[in-house]
């Protein structure tokens, strides 16, 4: 259930059942908006009879009025567990352009649906091949394939650190071997951004390098692409009609940027009691009335708790229950459109 304080979500028919949207679905004035009411008439993602979200990942469309009283469209990206008992918030965004159509998953403001996936890439001929890739826990031997999806294999890296990359090539002694690698550090599903071209060598011999993870890399799982060619240097996308190979892997980044809009103002936040036994209140009275994301991060940098709330001026409190979590030190982050607050929590 969502307490939306009267704000509408896209729902099914005239029910309060929140629609499951997919990436690229439009969110605009033609959407089927249903306003949440007071308990028990909250908007609901899941009830005993409405179970379409069970085990699904998708988008919720929402609307709110900004300070100019203009309607802005937005989305939350969530996953619901298989039994429908809990959900995880991955990301959210809204259009700052009043009444503009926003597509689920869109963050760039281009007004176009997001492309959804990485560009395809492949190579036609098998005279040469990548025989092994080693990087930050990945050690994958393989034979030839024009394109191989090895994204079930994950390298684990930390923002700001460097890691050796070693690419073994069957005929590495040939004189004009071309080896390239890219990592999508900002997770926008392309390899075109700054520092994303992480390795290039054309010639012969061994193909080893060092990959530096930018401190601004976005936390979470992203994509690495390794490409072998010969006598030319193709980009990360498209078909190479000569010999070589393309292999994709996953990279999990920890300690990087969080997947939200850049906050601009630091805030201290108070919580009490602290230390506590897992139950505490967060006081947010220096935040403007707005949506906030509460994230709690453990000492390994993993987000262990996430919640979004609309902060009301008259009741700027949020209660948090960490009683089922290990005792120890945590970091609380409170993120709103313009503010970032942090505070350490000690659970005894
Ligand atoms: Ca291979
Ligand atoms: Ca990118």
> Which descriptor suits the 3D outline?
globular
Q: Which sequence of SSEs, written as H and E, runs from N to C?
A: EEEEEEEEEEEEEEEEEEEEEEEEEE
For the biggest β-sheet, the strand order reads 11-18-16-13-14
Q: Total number of helical segments?
A: 0
Q: Give the domain tally.
A: 3
What's the total count of β strands? 26
CATH top-level class of the largest domain? Mainly Beta
Strand content: over 45%
Overall description:
By secondary structure, the protein is mainly beta. The protein has three domains: 8-103; 121-254, Immunoglobulin-like; 265-347, Immunoglobulin-like. It has no helices and 26 strands. The chain has strands spanning 8-10, 26-27, 33-35, 57-65, 71-80, 87-94, 102-103, 121-125, 130-135, 138-141, 147-158, 162-169, 177-183, 197-203, 207-212, 220-230, 238-243, 245-254, 265-268, 270-272, 279-283, 291-298, 303-310, 317-321, 328-336, 339-347. It has a five-stranded mixed beta sheet, with no helix packed on it. The chain is globular. Mean pLDDT is 86; it is low at 110-115 and 260-264. Bound molecules: calcium ion (2 copies). One calcium ion is lined by residues 184, 186, 188, 190-191, 193, 196.
